[in-house]
Design goal:
With 186 residues, this protein is α+β, with helices and mostly antiparallel strands. It has helices at residues 27-40, 132-145, 156-170; strands spanning 5-6, 45-47, 57-61, 76-96, 106-119, 125-131, 180-181. It has a single domain (5-181), classed as Peptide Deformylase (Alpha-Beta Complex), CATH 3.90.45. The two termini are 18 Å apart. The structure holds nickel (II) ion.
């Protein structure tokens, strides 16, 4: 099932998401649906608030970046109830986009490496360290679970410049190629 993607202005994107209980029904379907929604929307990551669910889960498929970082070959994962334990290394800048902010791309500076603890779809716990592109996407998606968007990292001037574009997204005047849920509309 493909969900419409929530966009800027939807209050769910600003809420801290809730942990998923171990007996949560339909977890595998939720994960499948999140991947399906992500692929059809041409994203590399998707967090549950972006499909209207305030739950602590995000999915990532970073295998498209494997030509530059071979270790990303086959990198397709769901991160459930994640906790970023540590961010280390020098900050570096990458031009980021977000399915919830259609037609906006901006340079964002983030630390090189993250250590993250999470459970997988079988509720097996993992404690792993990621760098480079994977760490970038993990930090972006993790932020969604905290109610943070990448535009929050921009300078006040850049934010002011984006104001009109953000308003247009909220009003449903920006129509990306994928299905979105416009705030305030059913
Ligand atoms: Ni995003």
């Amino acid at each position: 099932m493909i969900y419409p993607v929530t966009v800027y202005g939807d209050p769910i994107l600003r809420k801290r998401a809730e942990d998923i209980p171990a007996d949560y029904e339909g977890l595998k379907e939720l994960i499948d649906n999140m991947f399906e929604t992500m692929y059809v929307s041409d994203g590399v990551g998707l967090a549950a608030p972006q499909i209207g669910k305030s739950l602590r889960i995000f999915v990532i498929d970073a295998s498209s970046a494997a030509d530059e970082e071979p270790e990303l070959d086959g990198f397709k994962k769901a991160f459930i109830n994640p906790v970023i334990l540590e961010k280390t290394g020098d900050e570096w800048i990458m031009n980021e986009g977000c399915l919830s902010l259609p037609e906006i791309r901006e340079d964002v500076s983030r630390p090189e490496t993250v250590r993250i603890r999470y459970v997988d779809e079988n509720f097996v716990e993992h404690d792993e360290v990621y760098s480079g592109f994977a760490a970038r996407v993990i930090q972006h998606e993790y932020d969604h679970l905290e109610g943070i968007l990448f535009i929050d990292y921009l300078s006040p001037l850049k934010k002011r410049i984006l104001k009109g574009k953000l308003m247009a997204i909220t009003k449903g005047k920006v129509r990306p190629a994928y299905r979105i849920k416009v705030p305030g509309l059913k």
